[in-house]
Design a protein that fits this description.
Layout lengths: L1 H10 L6 E2 L2 E2 L7 H9 L6 H10 L25 H20 L6 E2 L19 E2 L8 H5 L5 H4 L14 H18 L19 H9 L21 H14 L19
Helix pairs in contact: 1-9, 2-9, 3-4, 3-7, 4-8
Length: 265
């Protein structure tokens, strides 16, 4: 009965979930997502795929995207828009896996001199927060929807903080990447990237690269993991919820409806 209940959000489809007259395709899971599900831990929410795909600007679906995107998605320029959006959803899932272990409430204070600075918004030492490890200063630099005056009254890891809300955090991440690859015309992997996970030669980049081995099939990537390639984030999320219950946790299923992207290829 439980397995049947968990299958509902995976197989349902709402006509309202259309983007530019095309169905939203869920991304495949990253290795860390599958591992978390197997252990009953925090997994990537498939609603975040939809959020990212709806947020991606048109320029990130065009030839304006730097050519090094092909190191992760060789077929990017030949793909249709829905597959490109699914790729970006997968990309940000991998980024969140490398940055925060897919945990939306992670907060880190770095001690390295170059980053141990005062945040111009909080007037405290900078902390990196949320799925993409962002800061309150990003409100000033990128127009992100963070509200320090609201958040300062809440406990440090309160999920209701605007910077920890996945929607705000991921939308801000899209803006930051857009600034890097479209406005500044920098490579996707660049020493000037906001994230060290996208800076070549760093340990964190190697962690990120290991999460990029299972992109959408349309990418025609040479390295794929056979046991993952026919799964979507919705299936893995459902597996994780089931395992959490079997391990003594509690959860509720809210009847989300998604497109099964695996069926597209």
């Amino acid at each position: 009965m439980l397995r049947n209940a968990l299958a509902i959000p995976v197989i349902c489809l709402l006509g309202a979930m259309l983007l530019s007259a095309q169905s939203v395709k869920l991304a495949p899971p990253t290795p860390i997502d599958v591992k978390a599900a197997e252990l009953g831990g925090k997994t990537w929410n498939p609603q975040w795929d939809i959020l990212i795909e709806q947020e991606v600007p048109e320029e990130m679906l065009t030839s304006a995207v730097p050519h090094d995107v092909r190191r992760f998605c060789p077929g990017f320029y030949r793909m249709d828009e829905s597959d490109k959006r699914a790729f970006w959803a997968y990309f940000f899932q991998a980024l969140a896996g490398a940055e925060a272990g897919l945990n939306p409430t992670v907060r880190v204070r770095h001690t390295q001199p170059q980053v141990a600075v005062i945040d111009r918004v909080t007037h405290r030492y900078v902390r990196s927060e949320g799925l993409l490890q962002l800061t309150y200063e990003d409100e000033l630099r990128y127009g992100c929807d963070f509200d320090w005056e609201h958040d300062r009254r809440l406990p440090a890891e309160d999920p209701d903080k605007t910077i920890l809300t996945p929607e705000n955090n991921l939308k801000c991440g899209v803006k930051i990447l857009y600034n890097q690859i479209i406005l500044q015309h920098r490579h996707l992997v660049s020493s000037k990237s906001y994230w060290s996970t996208l800076q070549p030669g760093t340990i964190s980049y190697r962690v990120f690269a290991k999460e990029m081995v299972n992109p959408p099939a349309a990418c025609e990537a040479p390295v794929r993991m056979p046991r993952l390639k026919h799964q979507t984030t919705a299936e893995v999320h459902a597996m994780g919820e089931e395992n959490r219950v079997s391990k003594g946790g509690t959860f509720s299923v809210k009847g989300e409806a998604f497109v099964d992207a695996a069926a597209a290829h």
